[in-house]
Amino acid sequence: MPVQVVDGIEIHYVETGGGGTTLCLVHGAGGNAQVWMRQLEGLAAAARVIALDLPGHGESKGDGRRRIEDYARVVRGFIRAAGLGPVVLGGHSMGGAVAQTVALEHPELLAGLVLVGTGARLRVLPRIFELLASDYAEGCAFVNVLGFSRAASQALKDGARAAMLGTRPSVTIGDFAACDAFDVMPRVGTIRAPVLAICGEDDQLTPPKYAEFLATKIPGARLLLVEKAGHFVQLEQ
Ligand code: COA
């Protein structure tokens, strides 16, 4: 995987396609760029598709962050260091919080925003924190059960669970703490980038209500609810 140095840290990324629009994709809590494998393949003919590993995740170096703003700073730095902007920025779950933050603070970097399985506020079930701290594998399994629809194959679920198991517990717990503190509900309506909000109809972690809120508050935003999909909608369908 290629690398871009941001704030002295090697940020790894996967790239496919080329020409036209650049789509830059940010994964969720405890995850990595592979959560976008379907889009890296399926959108390559239409765009330059780049999925990065946040610090402390996947192949990237460094430690995780505990605030969404700090991940947004990394993503901004990545877009600038790679000379990419303006990009269509896509984010899943925590990555969607990061993408909203970039859109609010640095709209000049964006040509559009795709918010996948996310919301303007991301409170986290206390049980997730308890399990991740007491038995990390159990915590990953719990998130995995909540993360997929009944229609999802075991292989898909196993892949997402393995990605979280491969992330250090301290990093994943820090990610969920960052989500829990995230709340741009009063501000999200000031986003002016073209927005597409996507959510699985069976999403239990960021239910369709969250995407409907984004689509209602952000002027011109489009909403896409996807059948037979849960929180990992971009893997499932
Ligand atoms: N968009 C729209 N509405 C939202 C929202 C969002 N992003 N986040 C919260 N709300 C709404 C809730 O639906 C609720 O509305 P209600 O009072 O009409 O029922 C209200 O705002 C308050 O919700 P919340 O801030 O989440 O607090 P809570 O004490 O009601 O619930 C949890 C706390 C953790 C139980 C709940 O947030 C939850 O079930 N979260 C999803 C599971 C999870 O852990 N997801 C991980 C995300 S990374």
Bound small-molecule species: coenzyme A
Mean pLDDT across every amino acid position: 97
| Strand numbers in spatial order across the main sheet | 1-2-4-3-5-6-7-8
The end-to-end span amounts to 25 Å
Number of helices: 9
- Radius of gyration over alpha carbons? 16 Å
Largest sheet: 8 strands, mixed
Question: What is the subunit organization of this protein?
Answer: single chain
Helical/strand content category: alpha/beta
Helix fraction, binned, reads: 25-40%
Number of DSSP E strands: 8
N-to-C order of helices and strands:
EEEHEHEHEHHHHEHEH
- Residue ranges: pLDDT <50 for 5 or more in a row? none
Give a brief rundown of this model.
With 237 residues, the chain is α/β, with parallel strands linked by helices. It is built from 9 helices and 8 strands.
Describe the structure.
With 237 residues, the chain is α/β, with parallel strands linked by helices. An eight-stranded mixed beta sheet has the order 1-2-4-3-5-6-7-8. Strand 5, helix 3 and strand 6 form a beta-alpha-beta unit. Helix 4 runs antiparallel to helix 5. 51% of the residues are buried. The model has no long low-confidence stretch (mean pLDDT 97). Bound molecules: coenzyme A.
Using brief descriptors, characterize the structure shown.
9 helices; 237 residues; eight-stranded mixed sheet; alpha/beta; globular; binds coenzyme A
Explain the layout of strands and helices.
Elements: E1 3-6, E2 9-17, E3 22-26, H1 37-42, E4 48-52, H2 68-81, E5 87-92, H3 94-105, E6 110-116, H4 126-134, H5 136-147, H6 154-165, H7 169-181, E7 195-200, H8 208-217, E8 222-226, H9 233-236
Parallel strand pairs: 3-4, 3-5, 5-6, 6-7, 7-8
Antiparallel strand pairs: 1-2, 2-4
Helix pairs in contact: 2-3, 4-5, 5-6
